[in-house]
Amino acid sequence: MTINKVRLKKLPAILFIEEDNSLLLFEPRGELVTVSPLTTIILLTCEKKGVLADNLQHLSDQLTIPLESINEEYSKLLATFSGGKGEDSYLDGRYPELDIELDKTVTAPSELSHYLLIAGSGFLIDTNCKVLSRAIQHILAPLISSYCPPDFFLEVIHLDGFYHIHSNGILAVKHLSYEEVMPELVDRLQIVSYQATPYLFCFHGAAIQQGQSIYLLPGESGKGKSTLCAEIQNSNSTTFSDEFIVLDEELNLTEIKLPLAIKSGSWEQLSGKYPCLKEEQEWRRLDGRLIKYVWPINRDKENNVTKVAKVHIIFPQFGVDLDDKGASLTKLTVVDTIQLLTRGGYQLSADLDELTLDKLFSYIENSTRMSLSYSSTSQALKALGLPDE
């Protein structure tokens, strides 16, 4: 499928058309929105003939749609794109500690401190709680270094029965119970480490390399991404992240090496592949979900993106009610894929422009794009042509 790009003259915007699907990039705000087929027709008609009442009446007659409906659609379009650059920015989710330069001479304050190296950034974690220090030592062991110059200093302070996380002197999270500390700490390590890289796009989802293929599993929470990522693991795989799909300026994946967060609903299912799950401590996210941490099977295997032959973008849709139907794969258009990617959560390193969007379109267009519905991971692996080990 080919994306047709139309630069509009009546609006400072670019229309991207793929069959019946369209996206509109409003350049003053760097805002990308989905537009209906009717809106697309109105925009193209106005481009050719100008915005005149008789043209809209002619359009109404041609489409046998009431003029009121067309006027309403056009008014909504103008209202959506009225004004200049908005107050929101794609960088609004940037963590504040990234703008604080840490004194590189900072050293471990105590024997409970740990140095970590993640995605090229150095972290120094200190706590006044011996139990938490041992948990950090256990869960983050593969990342712990004898010393690395810290870019970020995280202090986890236990005070009056609660835990408080400070990052480069900023109070990041407060009033946590012990069970809530590790998820908040690991999440912060993930987000800060990817935001410190020269990334272009970041989407919520898992990314794993299997031989010469890369599987991206984006989407909203609760769709089965992390569990499927854990199941895909074998001796020939490399996990970039089970939480974030991070693409740099060249649209190469960035590895954010951290343990997999396995939700309670998958513990029994994954215990055969990850026997250590049974012994691992339970932690609790702020929304109440219970998780345990395990490392990917091949955690020390280096990724080799230079030998990637194909990228597969798969949107998992787990559902127990699909048991009798087996797994099914549905092809997606480029526009469908972008809509699902953004719905699941994303961040850009700069405001969206035509060049950046062209890069993303090209990347997606050259990838396999599928929605995967399944009721068991064995079904999913079979549908994807992957070994069920």
UniProtKB/TrEMBL annotation:
It comes from the Bacteria. This is PqqD family peptide modification chaperone. It comes from Thalassotalea algicola.
